[in-house]
Amino acid sequence: MTTTRPGGRSARVRSAVLRAAGDMLAEQGFGHLDLAEIGRRAVVGKTTVYRRWGTVAALVADLLDEMAEESLPRTDTGTLLGDLTANARLVADTLTDPRQGPLFAALIASATCDERTAQALHQFYETRVAEWAPCVEQAIARGEVPAGTDPGEVIRAVSAPLYYRLLTTATPPDHTVADRAATAAAVAAERGVYVPAE
Question: Where is each HTH tetR-type domain found (predicted)?
Fold first, then answer.
């Protein structure tokens, strides 16, 4: 459930608290999040934090909502490979960012043990996939990939290797890795791999 977006002082309070929560999550992980400490960091009374969010999971869900809203819009290069490469590089840049990389790793880890965080994370990625799916739809219209290609599956195929690298190695994905993931997804799409079997 999305939190109502207030203006004025409430908006400033929300921004400060979400920033503090993101910093703590990136630094210490989900298990160390504490509403009172987040309020202290944000210079916001803990009563305000507890009244507004109530639980750490609700606060993390709101943080993910904000991250989805602030994500950069998709790039339209005019070709599927160009669009997928832009998407892959955006994901790689996010995962290698000094703050965003650890933040996403912590969110993914927390989603394995907290249902509310898992739901919020799923919603975040549904939003991002929906943002980029039109590039596949445009590729279908241009005849680059077969009719019936599943846009969501193509977009997920681009990002999956990048997240896997983040979670399984000490080497974050760079643009070379991103370009390879985009090329693999584009070639597979062109060959009909993402057309659901009847």
Answer: 11-71
Distance, in Å, from the CA atom of 157 to the CA atom of 149, rounded to the nearest integer, reads 13
Distance CA 125, CA 87 (A): 13
Q: 126-183 pLDDT, tens per residue?
A: 988 999 999 999 999 999 999 999 999 999 999 999 999 888 887 889 999 999 999 9
Position 182, amino acid: A
Task: In whole angstroms, give the CA distance from residue 154 to residue 171.
Answer: 24
Residue 103: give the domain boundaries: 71-190
42 and 110 co-located in one domain? no
Q: Which residues 6+ apart lie within 8 Å of 140 measured at CB?
A: 146, 147, 149
Domains in the chain, number: 2
pLDDT digits (tens, 9 = 90+) for 68-93: 777 767 889 999 999 999 999 999 99
Compute the half-sphere exposure of residue 41: CA atoms within 13 Å on the CB side of its CA.
18
Residues 185 and 92 in one domain: yes
